[in-house]
Amino acid sequence: MSVHRERGGATIFVLAMSMVLFLCAGLVIDAGMGINTRMRVADDAEQAARAGANAVDVLTLRAGGGVVIDPALARTHALDFLQARGYGPGQFTVTVTADTVAVQVRDHSETTILKLIGIADYPVSARATATAATS
Fold first, then answer.
1. Which helix (H) or strand (E) holds 127?
2. What is the pTM assigned to this prediction?
3. Residue range 38-62, pLDDT digits in tens
4. How many CB atoms lie within 10 A of CB 10?
């Protein structure tokens, strides 16, 4: 009689395990895509900060005043780089001091498999700082 009560138990187990494995695959695939997005955003923030830090005020440097960043030019270089990479207004912040350019970039990573359970994307951000130098 115990045979009849367990009829279909294996089917339920296989279906449940299939759903768990599908969810795990979704986490692996979408997390990998998120890591790639995070690396791209971090690289873009670093490159924008470097582009801004290259805007050294040459007149001040030649006059012996040390390495000073031209704030307007540094901001323009960083903004131009980020806009060329496809970032729009509100996706980045550029802060310029006398010798440092800090850039924070925000984006989102779209999911492929996790969309099926209602997670369409998640935020990704990175911050980078570059200091002006003469060498």
1. strand 121-131
2. 0.79
3. 999 999 999 999 999 998 888 887 8
4. 9
